[in-house]
Amino acid sequence: MGKEIGGKRPTTLITDGAANFQNAYLNEFYTSEKLARTRRIQEIQLAGCAHNNKMEPMNAEIRDRGKVTRTFKKMDTPILTGVQISHNYIRPHMALDGKAPSEVA
What we know:
Number of helices: 5
Strand content: 5-15%
Distance between the termini: 29 Å
Oligomer: single chain
Order of helices and strands: HEHEHHH
Shape: globular
Helix content: 40-55%
Structural class: mainly alpha
Number of strands: 2
């Protein structure tokens, strides 16, 4: 989906340690042309310099919403925008001492 939205191959893909990402990377982004190849960074630890830990809570919220609605019917659904607004402006986060990210920013 990211390739289609961006209109080009990403230069870097950051993933966690889930095994399914290796197959997806090979199927979607790997090429024998070394200069055109998408670089994959796989960070499992919180102490790493590049990881996706900040996105995981948002991914979980989107997954939960998808279960309730029994999947998304189209990619540009306003439900995703609503989840983003709720996550960033309304919902308190434990890691932010009960504040929303917009309050902290």
